[in-house]
C-alpha cells in the first residue's frame, strides 16, 4: 500500500482513527461471526482476511506455560523491590519476549493476563505470591510500572495488551467460586477499587479479568461495578475477559442463574466481552449466546458492544497494520540484558529483616549451607520454563569457592520396607528411554513429567534410599538419589518421573498415615493408597501396603554433621510454591513446617552464628530472637541463588522492603474470608498489635540520616520534601517512605497510610532530596453519609522514614476541607450498607443487577449503627425496604426500641422487597441503631415528618 493507493476497505486504512476503523469492520461482520468472537479463541474470518485471535497469555513474572523464557522474581518479590523503574523494565523485557516467542509460535498471545493487583490483606491466602502488596498505593504504583513496560512506549501501537486480575476483593482460595466477600462502601472505595483505579487511569491497561468470587452476594462476572466504576475511569475501550470456567460457575456452582443462557446474557450486559470457558471449544459459549438472542435476553447491539471492545485492543496491537507496527520485528529473547535484569531484580527483592553484625560475610568465611531450599530454584504455577537456574548453594559455591562451602539438605533419608520384608527400589536412570535424555545422553529432568514409558518402582532386598521432605500439614515428597521426584501418572504407576512437584493437580505429594505397626502411604493427587504388586508399585483402591519407614539418617544429624566447624551457617527455609499455599489452596498457619523448625534449631544449637534465609511466597511467623541475621526473598526466578550470594557477601547492599505486614502469630490474623480491613483492623493501615516485622521494613549494610522535612500547600496540592544522606561506608539503596495520618478524625482512619515512596542509590556521604507533590484528594475518605469522597478539615501528621514504623521525621499540616455534617436522612434516607459500625451482619445483593442490602450473617441477629443522623424539626414515620422473613428494630442512641417492623416471607424470593412503615417521634441529631432478627434483607430506611 502506498500514499497514492488507498486501501480497499476503511478498516485497513492506517490514516483513519481506530474508532472509525473498528466501526467499519464491525459493520462487515455477520452476526454469527461476531458471536464467534466472544469466546476466548476467536476464529479467523477468512473472507475478510482476519486471523484467529485468543485472549489470554500468562506473563506474571515472565512468559508462562509456553516453554523456555526468562524467569523473573515472583510478583510479591517485585513488590518487595519498591522500585517502579525496575519493574517497568521487567515488564518491557517480558513483553519483548512475548513478541519474540509469538514470531515463532502463533499460540503465544499478545493479550497479557497480568499483573495481579489483588491486595494481600491476608498472608495465609494461597495466591499471595501473585500480588504485589497489602497497600493499594504501593500495589498500584508497581502494577502501573509493569503495565507500562508491557504496553511499550509507542504513542499509537502497543507491544502487548495487559489485563489486570482479579476484579474484585478476591484472593481466598477456600471456596473461591462460591464465597462472597462482604465489602462495605469505605473499604470498596478506599481500598479495593483504589489499586485498580490508579493503574487504569495511568493509561497502560487494556482491560480487567473478573474474579471467581462474589462481592456482596453477587458474582463478579455480573458486577455493576464494571460499568459504574471501571468504565468511568477511562475513555479507552477496556476489554473484560472472564476467568477460566467462571461463566459456567454462575449456574453450576454458584446457582445464581437457572440457565446458562440467562447467565451468559447477564455477564455480557454487565460488561464481560470475552468468555474463557471449555478450553479451545467455543461451541458451548456460542450456543449460549445464540440461545440468549433467541430468547430476547440479548440484542445484536449488545453483541456489537462487546466485539467493539475486543477489536479496539486488536487494532492497538497493530494486527491490522503489520507494516506500521513498531514491534512486529521484536526478537529480543533471553538476551544478556534480560539475564542481567533478572539478576538485578532478584538482588533488589532481597529483604534484610535482622542483622546483628554477622552480615556481610568476609571473603574467607567457611560456610555451612543447609535446608530444604538450599539447592533448589523453584518454579511456581505462573513461571516459565527455566533456561538458566541458580540455587543458593550454587551461588555460594560461585562466590566463595566450593572448598569453603559445606552442604547438607537436612532431610530424612529413609528406606520403605514392605510387609513382606522387601524394600522399595527406584530403577536406575540407565533404565530410562532415550526420549528423556539430553544431547550427551544424560537424563533431562525437564522431560520426565507424566511419562508412562519410564520404569515403575519395584521392590528388592536392598531398596533405594529416598529423601523424605515434610512440607508441613502432613504433606511430603519422596525423591530418588539422582534428584527425581516420585510421581504418579494416569496409569497409576509410581515412578521417579518429575524434576519438581508441579501441575494443576500435584502428582508428587504423599501422606504417611499410621496403620498397625507401620504406615500407609496415601497419594494426595488421586487420594489412593500405594500398593505393591508383582507388576510394580502403584496406587490402587484396594490392597494398600503397610510400610515401615526406616530412617537411615535424620535431617538434624546431617545438619549437625556439617555445621559445627563452620564460621557461619546459612539455613535456607521456606515453601515449595506448588504445595500448601498456591492457587486452589490457602495455608492454615503462619508457622514454618515442623521439619524446618527442627533443622533450624539443630543448626542454631550446633553453631550460634546461624543466618536464616526465608525463601517463600508469603510471610512466616518465626522466632528470630536467637538468630543473628534473617533475610527474606520471594522465589527469585532464574538468578535467585546468585543474587542471594551477592547480598550475603556484601557485593550488593540489601534494600528490599516488606510489601506486607509480617504478623507474629496466627492469633493476630482475621478470619480467612474477612475482607473488612477497617472493622477487622487489618494490614498496617489499621492493625493495632505488634507485628513481627512491619510493612515497609528492610535493613541495609549502610546507615542513612533523614533531615530538612518541609511542607506547604499551594493550589490544592501539598508539597513535601526532605533529604536523605548515606552516613555509612558502602554504596547502598535506600527506600524513603512518606506516610500520613489524620490526627483527630471523626471516624476511624488508618493509623498511617503510604502517600509516596522512592528508591535511590547513594554513595557514602552522598545525599539526595526527595520532593513529592500530592493532591489534597490523597487525604480524602469515602463519606458514607454523603455517598462521596470528602476531605476532612484539620491537622494531619506527615511521617517520613525507612518503614511504616521506623519514622525519622514528623511534621503537622493543617488542611482545609469540609467540616463534618450530620447525615441528611430526611433528604437521603439511609442505604443499609452505608453503616458506620456493625456487628454480626454481611452485605448481600439487593437485586441481581445492582445495589446492596444487609442481612444477619448467621440468619438470626445483626446490628447496624448510623452516626449523627439529622431528623431536623422532627419525623413521625420510618419506612424500611425489606425482603424475607424477620423483624427490623429501630432505636436511637442505643435506647429503647421505638419501632419493630415485621416482614413476612414472600413467594418472590430473596429479591421480593416490600415497604413497611411505623410511627416514631424523633427530632434533632441521633445515632440510629437497627437490629435485624431473622434471615431478612434490609435495603433501605426512610424517614418522613
Would you spell out the secondary-structure blueprint of this structure?
Elements: H1 18-28, H2 31-36, E1 41-42, E2 53-54, H3 75-81, H4 84-104, E3 111-116, H5 136-151, E4 161-167, E5 180-181, H6 185-201, E6 207-210, E7 214-215, E8 218-219, H7 225-228, E9 239-240, H8 246-252, H9 260-270, H10 283-294, H11 300-316, H12 336-348, E10 351-355, E11 367-370, H13 392-400, E12 405-408, E13 412-417, E14 423-425, E15 458-460, E16 466-470, E17 476-479, E18 485-488, E19 494-498, E20 510-515, E21 518-523, E22 529-533, E23 536-540, E24 546-553, H14 555-563, E25 568-574, H15 594-606, E26 610-615, E27 629-633, H16 640-649, H17 683-686, E28 704-714, E29 717-726, E30 732-742, E31 753-762, E32 767-775, E33 781-783, E34 788-790, E35 794-801, E36 807-815, H18 825-828, E37 830-831, E38 837-839, E39 841-845, E40 852-856, E41 861-870, E42 875-883, E43 886-892, E44 897-903, E45 914-922, E46 925-933, E47 937-944
Parallel strand pairs: 3-4, 4-6, 5-7, 6-9, 11-12, 11-25, 25-26, 26-27
Antiparallel strand pairs: 1-2, 7-8, 10-27, 13-16, 13-24, 14-15, 16-17, 18-19, 20-21, 21-24, 22-23, 28-29, 29-32, 30-31, 30-35, 33-34, 35-36, 37-47, 38-41, 39-40, 41-46, 42-45, 42-47, 43-44, 43-46
Helix pairs in contact: 1-11, 4-5, 4-12, 5-6, 8-9, 9-10, 12-16, 13-16, 14-15
Amino acid at each position: 500500500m502506498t500514499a497514492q493507493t488507498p486501501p480497499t476497505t476503511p478498516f485497513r486504512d492506517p490514516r483513519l482513527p481506530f474508532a472509525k476503523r473498528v466501526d467499519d469492520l464491525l459493520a462487515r461482520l455477520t452476526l454469527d461471526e461476531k458471536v464467534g468472537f466472544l469466546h476466548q479463541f476467536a476464529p479467523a474470518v477468512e473472507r475478510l482476511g482476519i486471523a484467529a485471535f485468543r485472549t489470554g497469555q500468562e506473563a506474571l513474572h515472565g512468559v508462562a506455560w509456553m516453554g523456555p523464557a526468562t524467569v523473573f522474581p515472583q510478583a510479591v518479590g517485585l513488590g518487595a523491590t519498591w522500585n517502579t523503574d525496575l519493574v517497568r523494565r521487567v515488564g518491557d523485557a517480558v513483553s519483548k519476549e512475548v513478541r519474540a516467542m509469538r514470531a515463532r509460535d502463533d499460540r503465544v498471545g499478545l493479550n497479557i493476563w497480568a499483573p495481579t493487583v489483588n491486595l494481600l490483606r491476608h498472608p495465609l491466602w494461597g495466591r499471595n505470591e501473585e500480588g504485589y502488596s497489602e497497600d493499594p498505593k504501593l500495589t498500584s504504583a508497581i502494577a502501573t510500572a509493569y503495565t507500562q513496560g508491557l504496553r511499550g512506549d509507542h504513542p499509537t501501537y502497543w507491544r502487548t495488551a495487559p489485563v489486570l486480575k482479579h476484579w474484585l476483593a478476591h484472593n481466598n482460595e477456600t471456596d473461591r467460586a462460591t464465597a462472597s466477600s462482604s465489602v462495605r462502601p469505605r473499604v470498596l472505595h478506599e481500598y479495593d477499587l483504589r489499586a485498580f483505579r490508579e493503574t487504569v487511569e495511568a493509561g497502560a491497561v487494556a482491560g480487567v479479568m473478573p474474579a471467581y468470587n462474589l462481592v456482596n452476594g453477587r458474582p463478579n462476572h455480573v458486577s455493576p461495578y464494571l460499568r459504574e466504576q471501571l468504565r468511568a475511569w477511562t475513555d479507552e475501550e477496556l476489554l473484560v475477559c472472564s476467568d477460566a470456567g467462571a461463566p459456567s460457575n454462575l449456574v453450576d456452582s454458584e446457582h445464581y442463574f437457572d440457565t446458562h443462557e440467562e447467565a451468559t446474557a447477564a455477564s455480557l450486559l454487565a460488561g464481560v466481552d470475552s468468555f474463557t470457558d471449555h478450553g479451545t471449544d467455543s461451541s458451548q459459549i456460542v450456543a449460549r449466546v445464540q440461545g440468549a438472542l433467541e430468547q430476547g435476553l440479548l440484542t445484536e447491539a449488545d453483541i456489537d458492544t462487546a466485539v467493539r471492545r475486543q477489536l479496539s485492543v486488536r487494532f492497538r496491537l497493530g494486527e491490522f497494520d503489520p507494516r506500521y507496527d513498531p514491534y512486529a520485528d521484536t526478537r529480543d529473547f533471553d538476551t544478556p540484558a534480560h539475564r542481567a535484569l533478572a539478576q538485578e531484580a532478584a538482588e533488589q527483592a532481597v529483604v534484610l529483616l535482622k542483622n546483628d553484625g554477622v552480615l556481610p560475610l568476609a571473603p574467607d568465611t567457611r560456610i555451612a549451607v543447609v535446608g530444604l531450599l538450599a539447592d533448589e530454584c523453584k518454579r511456581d504455577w505462573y513461571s516459565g520454563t527455566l533456561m538458566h537456574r541458580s540455587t543458593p548453594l550454587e551461588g555460594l559455591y560461585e562466590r566463595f569457592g566450593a572448598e569453603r562451602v559445606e552442604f547438607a539438605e537436612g532431610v530424612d533419608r529413609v528406606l520403605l520396607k514392605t510387609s513382606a520384608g522387601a524394600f522399595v527400589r527406584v530403577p536406575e536412570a540407565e533404565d530410562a528411554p532415550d526420549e528423556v535424555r539430553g544431547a550427551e545422553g544424560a537424563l533431562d529432568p525437564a522431560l520426565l513429567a507424566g511419562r508412562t514409558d519410564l520404569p515403575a518402582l519395584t521392590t528388592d532386598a536392598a531398596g533405594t534410599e529416598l529423601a523424605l521432605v515434610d512440607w508441613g500439614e502432613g504433606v511430603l515428597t519422596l525423591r530418588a538419589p539422582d534428584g527425581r521426584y516420585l510421581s504418579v501418572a494416569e496409569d497409576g504407576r509410581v515412578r521417579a518421573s518429575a524434576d519438581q512437584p508441579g501441575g494443576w493437580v500435584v502428582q508428587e505429594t504423599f501422606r504417611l498415615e499410621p496403620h498397625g505397626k507401620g504406615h500407609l502411604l496415601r497419594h494426595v493427587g488421586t487420594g489412593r493408597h500405594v500398593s505393591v504388586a508383582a507388576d510394580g508399585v502403584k496406587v490402587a483402591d484396594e490392597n494398600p501396603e503397610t510400610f515401615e519407614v526406616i530412617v537411615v539418617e535424620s535431617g538434624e544429624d546431617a545438619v549437625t554433621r556439617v555445621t559445627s566447624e563452620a564460621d557461619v551457617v546459612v539455613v535456607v527455609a521456606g515453601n515449595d510454591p506448588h504445595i500448601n499455599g498456591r492457587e486452589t489452596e490457602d495455608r492454615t498457619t503462619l508457622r514454618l513446617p515442623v521439619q524446618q523448625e527442627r533443622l533450624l534449631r539443630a543448626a542454631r544449637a550446633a553453631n550460634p552464628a546461624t543466618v536464616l534465609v526465608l525463601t517463600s511466597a508469603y510471610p512466616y511467623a518465626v522466632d528470630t530472637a536467637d538468630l543473628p541475621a534473617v533475610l527474606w526473598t520471594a522465589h527469585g526466578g532464574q538468578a535467585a541463588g546468585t543474587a542471594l550470594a551477592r547480598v550475603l557477601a556484601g557485593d550488593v547492599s540489601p534494600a528490599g522492603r516488606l510489601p506486607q505486614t509480617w504478623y507474629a502469630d496466627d492469633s493476630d490474623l482475621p478470619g480467612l474470608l474477612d475482607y473488612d480491613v477497617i472493622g477487622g483492623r487489618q494490614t498496617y493501615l489499621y492493625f493495632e498489635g505488634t507485628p513481627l516485622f512491619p510493612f515497609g521494613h528492610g535493613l541495609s549494610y549502610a546507615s542513612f540520616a533523614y533531615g530538612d522535612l518541609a511542607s506547604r500547600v499551594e493550589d490544592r496540592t501539598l508539597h513535601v520534601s526532605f533529604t536523605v544522606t548515606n552516613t555509612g561506608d558502602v554504596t547502598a539503596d535506600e527506600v524513603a517512605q512518606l506516610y500520613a495520618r489524620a490526627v483527630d478524625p471523626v471516624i476511624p482512619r488508618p493509623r498511617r497510610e503510604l502517600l509516596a515512596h522512592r528508591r535511590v542509590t547513594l554513595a557514602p556521604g552522598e545525599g539526595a532530596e526527595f520532593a513529592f507533590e500530592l493532591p489534597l484528594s490523597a487525604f480524602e475518605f469515602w463519606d458514607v453519609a454523603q455517598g462521596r469522597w470528602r476531605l476532612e478539615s484539620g491537622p494531619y501528621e506527615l511521617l517520613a522514614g525507612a518503614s511504616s514504623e521506623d519514622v525519622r521525621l514528623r511534621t503537622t499540616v493543617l488542611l482545609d476541607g469540609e467540616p463534618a455534617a450530620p447525615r441528611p436522612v430526611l433528604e437521603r434516607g439511609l442505604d443499609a450498607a452505608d453503616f458506620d459500625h456493625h456487628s454480626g451482619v454481611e452485605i448481600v445483593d439487593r437485586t441481581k443487577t445492582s445495589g446492596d442490602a444487609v442481612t444477619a450473617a448467621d440468619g438470626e441477629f445483626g446490628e447496624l449503627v448510623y452516626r449523627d443522623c439529622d431528623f431536623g424539626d422532627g419525623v413521625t414515620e420510618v419506612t424500611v425496604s425489606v425482603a424475607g422473613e424477620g423483624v427490623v428494630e429501630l432505636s436511637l442512641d442505643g435506647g429503647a426500641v421505638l419501632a419493630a417492623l415485621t416482614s413476612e416471607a414472600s413467594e418472590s424470593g430473596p429479591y421480593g422487597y416490600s415497604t413497611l412503615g411505623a410511627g416514631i417521634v424523633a427530632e434533632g441529631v441521633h445515632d440510629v441503631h437497627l437490629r435485624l432478627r431473622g434471615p431478612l434483607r434490609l435495603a433501605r430506611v426512610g424517614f418522613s415528618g
